[in-house]
Specification:
single chain; alpha+beta; six-stranded antiparallel beta sheet; 4 helices; 9 strands; 26% strand
Length: 182
């Protein structure tokens, strides 16, 4: 596997570790900004995930030629970019995980794009529950924090539809925050 090329300006001054996850075209990497102890996550979404994904669209007849299929993948990229812009806006609101930004980079092989998303690292509720039990008070705080974040989201004009333990994160102050939009 080739070395990860970090896009500028999004990841200028960052050191990125080895992939923590790699599943269906989405990879996550730990990262740190040089001269800081702050931890980040770099999520890279490949559109299309692979040549196989393009071939499948053509073989099934979903698209008549590669150009039409690539138009579809551009639409997918644009949709993810629009979601990233919403996430960036929501991250400034109370109850949401801090989000630093995103950047679209054409793949070196010319087949689609990679979308780089940069956010602060916090442990997910899913991972936290694997390591420790939740107290009654923690459960109450979880409910209160999520209700507040969802109300803020709704007032901002959005409806959050992917609430699950892997999209809820815990801050250092034991506050529960909503992260990934799905």
């Amino acid at each position: 596997m080739s070395e990860l090329k970090l896009p500028s300006p999004l990841l200028d001054g960052f050191k990125v570790g080895n992939a923590m996850t790699d599943h269906e075209g989405t990879r996550c990497y730990p990262a740190m900004k040089e001269g800081s102890d702050e931890k980040y996550i770099v999520k890279i979404i490949s559109i299309p995930a692979s040549q196989v994904q393009l071939d499948a669209l053509l073989l099934t007849g979903a698209y008549k030629d590669p150009a039409d299929a690539m138009d579809y993948f551009r639409e997918v990229t644009d949709s993810i970019a629009a979601e990233a812009a919403i996430l960036e806006k929501l991250s400034k609101l109370d109850g949401f995980l801090s989000y630093e930004g995103w950047q679209i980079v054409p793949k070196e092989n010319g087949l689609g794009n990679e979308i780089f998303l940069l956010g602060s690292y916090k442990r997910s509720l899913e991972r936290h529950m694997q390591r420790s039990q939740m107290s009654h008070l923690d459960a109450i705080n979880l409910g209160l924090d999520l209700c507040q974040a969802l109300a803020i989201c709704r007032r901002a004009g959005y409806l959050y539809v992917d609430l699950k333990p892997s999209n809820i994160f815990i801050s250092k102050n034991k506050e529960y925050r909503i992260g990934d939009l799905g």
